[in-house]
Write a structure and sequence with these properties.
Blueprint (H helix, E strand, L loop, with lengths): L1 E5 L3 H13 L3 E5 L2 H7 L5 E7 L3 H10 L4 E6 L4 H6 L3 E4 L4 H12 L18 H13 L6 E4 L6 H10 L8 E5 L5 H9 E2 L11 E2 L1 H4 L3 E6 L6 H13 L1 E2 L8 E2 L2 E7 L3 H6 L5 H7 L2 E4 L10 H16 L5 E2 L1 H9 L5 H15 L4 E2 L1 H8 L15 H15 L4 H8 L3 H13 L5 H8 L7
Parallel strand pairs: 1-2, 1-3, 3-4, 4-5, 6-13, 6-14, 7-10, 10-13, 15-16
Antiparallel strand pairs: 8-9, 11-12
Amino acid sequence: MGIAILDTDKEIVSILAELIAETGESPCPFTSKDKFLEVIDPKSHSIAIISDEFVDVVEGTKQVYDSIEIIGIGTADGSACLKAGAAHYLKKPFRAEEIVRVIGALSAPKTGTGKENGSPFVVADPAMGRIVDIIRKVAPTQAPVLIMGESGTGKEVIARNIHALSKRRSGPYVGINLAAIPETLLESELFGYEKGAFTGAYATRVGRFEQADGGTILLDEVTEIGSGLQAKLLRVLQERQIDRVGGKTPIKVDFRVISTTNRDIEEEIRAGRFRNDLFYRLNVIPVKVPPLRERREDILPLAAHFITKIAAREGMQEKVLSAGAKDALLKYHWPGNVREMENVIERAMILNEGETISSEHVVAGNTASADSGAVPPTGTTIHDMEKSLIFSTLRKVEGNRTRAATLLGISIRTLRNKLNEYSRGGQISDDESVVANGPDPEES
């Protein structure tokens, strides 16, 4: 497999190409965005090194070809590249051994090192342990799998692992988020189109099913597609062949299908929004992923896992959760599930300058009071909840408005406006007034 390079600096591209060749991989260098986009393909490229001048290319490549790992390079802090989907970011000038190390890590098999039970997942709760057992039994087969669960529970992680443990692991893994693509474009995204099929079709395009030939296709949020496309999808699953838009000859495709949904799919069927026959095609092996609040034993192991992961990624020292922080994590309801936890731990790791993560860091990160179980008293208004959260955060950062605004995810101007609103309306106590009006060294 090749490694694509995109940077306007010809010297950087040349140096990277030489380093990649020395590792035994095949470099594919580009200084032109258009040429890069014409050639990039998960069947030919496992990794792409992209300059932060092309954040749009990072985001687009990751959306279209999720299996391609992306390394961002540039002179900024890398946050834009990482947010767009890059797995790693190297700030120029970087050393040769750094890029070689990162390429090696991303090229390594992604089946995971696992825990004591041999699973690549962080598993302590029996509910997830049962899912891991199902994955082990199902992965070597060709059976379609339907993964159900709330957003953020790790459905895509499970799908990737099934592919990695399957007989198709040497083939492509192609994912498509069906909820993120307009209905009018979905058919051509899934099945491709021929040159001249419609206005703007200047060249033939291969669809996701063809890209997944010999491998696995993930239909993420499958319940989001309309009834017309559901009928076409059913035919593809039955006949194992696709028709490109504007094409005249069916194309045979060999794939395994894994699909996910965060909806109650049986309710969707009863409401007539999802075809019963398509459901039976997809639901050969059902996997129901419980929300994080229903697998409490996984919470602290996951937190420790994310601390290690973020510390390694950011090159910082691992931090320790205090007893109060652990208690806060365990009491919180986790509406955003595992994805929310990773965000909370990342925020605490970055904003906390000490070696210990205390309860104030994880509570402020959750934007809810973990100490109260994140359940406000009956009759509490949104206005009162907002005010309570703002003053609770201000107290925990000793009145530092700049830091409070950062933790709350709002601008310092918005925070000042809120405080002025409370003050004008006579809605703050003497104690709150001291916190709200105290000096802020970061604003001076």
